[in-house]
Structures are given as C-alpha cells and as structure tokens.
Amino acid sequence: MENPFGKIATLEKAMEFFHDGMTLMFGGFGGVGTPPGLIDGILEKGIRNLTLIGNDTGFPHIGIGKLVSQERAKKVIASHIGSNPFAGQFMHEGKLEVEFSPQGILAERIRAGGVGLPGILSDIGKDIELVAGDKQRVVLNGKEYLVEEALTAEVSIVFAKKADEYGNLIYDKSARNTNPLVAMAGTITIAEVEEIVPLGTLDAEEIITPGVFVDYIIPTKGVNWKWAWE
Amino acid sequence: MGVDIRNKLAKRAAEEIQNGMVVNLGIGIPSLVPNHLKKGVNVIFHAENGITGMGQSPIKGEEDKNLCNAGGFPVTLNIGGSYCDSAVSFGMIRSGKIDITILGSLQVSQKGDLANWIVPGKKVPGMGGAMELAQKAKKVIVLMNHCDKHGRSKIVKECTMPLTSRECVDLIITELAVFQVTEEGLLLTEIFAQGNLEDVVNKTQCEFAISENLKEIPY
C-alpha cells in the first residue's frame, strides 16, 4: 500500500499522541463502533487521568469501558453510564467526575466542536436542574434556550469499516453512530479501520467522513471482546 | 412483572400505532410491542444509535456485531431502512419526526411529568436519549407497573424522583388500567379485564376523572 499522505501509521506511532491528563474523544455506542486496538494501546501505555468524551461508558470489558473500569479516567462527559457499573461506583466514591449531557445534545456539542462553532442553543432539559444547572440562557425570537458549549479534544479516536490512503472513511451499519461527529472534533483524529484501500477505490458519493478530518489511519485487528449478547 | 402481563401492556400499546408511523421503543416491555402489531400495519422503527427502519432480532448465529439497537442487542434492517449518525438520528427526534415513543418509567405525575432516569441514592445511569424523546416525540406512551415493589403508586400527584421531562406523557398503560393525560389531569379510559374500579382508585395516589365511555380491555 502506498502512503502518499503519510497518514497510514502503526499503533506505535499513534500512541505518541497519548499522554496522562489528556482529553480524549471516542466514537461508539455501547462499544459498537469503538476502536479496540487504540483502547488496548492506551491501556498498555499506562495512560491515566483521562477526560473522556463520548456517548456512554460502554461495558466493563467492552469499548471505552475498559479504560473506565481500570480507573484510567478522572472525568467523563457522556449521556449514559448505566451499562458499566464501575462508572457509577467510582462516581459515588468521588473518584470519577461525570458530566451528563442528553444524548442528542452531546452529539451536537461534539459536532459543533468539529465544525468550528462555539456552542449550540437547546431547549432540551431547560427546566430540568440536572441539565440546566447554571448554564447561560439566551432568548431568541421570544423563546428561551440553554447555551450548550461545544466539545473538542486533543485526540479523537474512531472506528471505521474502510479508509482510503487520504483517510476518507466509510462506516459499518449502526457502528457509524457518533464516529463521524467525533472524527471532526479532535485536534488529532486517529481512525482505526478494518480495511485500507487505494485512492479512488471508494465511491466519492459514499464517503461519510472526508479525509481532511483524519490525521492517521491504523489497521485494526478487530474486536477482541465478547459482546453482552453473545 | 410476568410475561403475560408484559405482553398485555405491549399489546395495548401496539393498538396506538397506525400504519406509516415512525416509532421509537425504549428497552424492556416496550421492546415487545412489535410482536403485537396488527397485520398490514407498517411501522418505521427508529433507534437512537442511527437506525431508521429497524427490523426484528436476527436468528441465532446470524447476528451482526455492527448492527445493534440502542440497548446493544443485535437487530436487522428492514427493506428501505437506513443508517445515520447520532446527530441526524436526534435531529429526527428534536424536529418532531417521531410519531410515538414508548418508554418505561419510575413515576408519572397527574400532569404528565416523567421521572425515569435516576433512582435517588441508588442508581444514576444517565438520561441517554430519554429527555429528547420525552420532550419532542409527538406522543409519549408510558408502560409501567401501577405500583412499585413496595406497593406505592407510581402514578402520583407530584413526582418525588428527579424528572426526565415535564408535562410530556400522553398515555399511561399499567397492568390495571389506561389513563390519558389531559389538560385537566388524568382521565381513566380503560380497565383491564379482571380488574375493578375500586382497585384502580385504591392503588392510584392522585385523583383522576373517569371517562363516560369507560371500557374494559378484553385481554
């Protein structure tokens, strides 16, 4: 495989971008669409005190859940932690800070971060204390909205079905979920992919994430966990 | 709740679904609703994780790890179905494209307030997509036990548990009865067979009106 843009990399190279205390955004929904090789790489490198941003905290042995259950995170921004009992336990013990954001608003905050907007206006949960808190309020055309701040990260990690040499990505079915949004919101975005194909192989009409958002592409060895339904 | 009762609630909820509707189902009893749709009723099932036109569970051995519902269980895609990212999926919800959402709940108030995301002192799973669905779906149906495991009514004057969304519930279906949430408060419209009005009154914490056309559900 040619590497005309220098984006095709090894896991070892990708690991240079990870350090203690960093902000990490991850694609995936209940572990579906979360890059397994990068998660293991982070574990093996011993990275700690992460601020994790993503849909949920996976399951204890699945997806981002591995980092949470092995106490690598100090904070998560997510919509749901119910499938990973460690997240709830550490939160109650004061070891893990959790910021809850309604799922679609979280997605939009990530999208906003990725498309150069400072935030969004939302009426979701504006009369619910646990969402509204002391967030700024704005009146637009007579209606009041919460200002929901955009989210970005030092590194975003995503899982895709195919990448070409430029990092144009297509995803697989419901494993797409938050990945196209997360891919846009990282200062550095690393895509772990099932297949790397030559330029021109992907149908330009089918590309979901333009390669301009992707800095590095690494091949995956595939999911190495057992799903809850298996 | 036994299987028969769960199916009873799901069957009654399925009667609310009309041909061509876009429907989002919560986990638990709501997931049984598709089994009770009448023949010829075509429904577009929506899943928050980016599936429009979600189909049934695959047969064992044919699961696809990258095709799951929002609860993480394998599903299939119906003909004409599509995938999208989470922002688009919730765009459908917030812009009012979901005709019905069917959810479970811990408490519902007489005004239709929904409390289904935190058990104080016990569990804080997070709201997931429930706030958006409750606030923005055209019709919100709650399927739940009438009382909690301590025998306390889950239909209440004011919710004591943290709210998911205010004044959002349209219909409450329990193993005893069906209530509509109206601007004047709750209206009892149906009682399940083998139940009686006195029982419903005794087990419901708040006051409610009784429909002039109070019906008995035969199953």
Automatic annotation (TrEMBL), chain A:
Gene3D superfamilies: Glutaconate Coenzyme A-transferase. GO terms for molecular function: CoA-transferase activity. Keywords: Transferase. It comes from the Bacteria. Pfam families: CoA_trans. SMART domains: CoA_trans. The keyword Transferase applies. Belongs to the 3-oxoacid CoA-transferase subunit A family. This is CoA transferase subunit A.
